[in-house]
């Protein structure tokens, strides 16, 4: 079974490698995830992902 775009976004956000949702979206698109902008557009999702990125980002951009 494959991981959904939203599940992958949360996994990447928790990784500490992405400073913000913009960087997260770029990575998802590079991985050919589907409908990235549409799926991450709701404020509840984008706000939560942004908060996770801010809390876990280690200060070094990767990828």
UniProtKB/TrEMBL annotation:
It comes from the Bacteria. This is Uncharacterized protein. It comes from Phenylobacterium conjunctum.
């Amino acid at each position: 079974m494959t991981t959904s775009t939203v599940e992958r976004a949360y996994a990447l956000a928790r990784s500490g490698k992405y400073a913000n949702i913009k960087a997260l979206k770029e990575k998802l698109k590079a991985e050919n995830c589907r409908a990235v902008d549409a799926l991450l557009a709701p404020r509840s999702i984008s706000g939560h992902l942004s908060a996770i990125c801010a809390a876990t980002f280690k200060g070094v951009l990767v990828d």
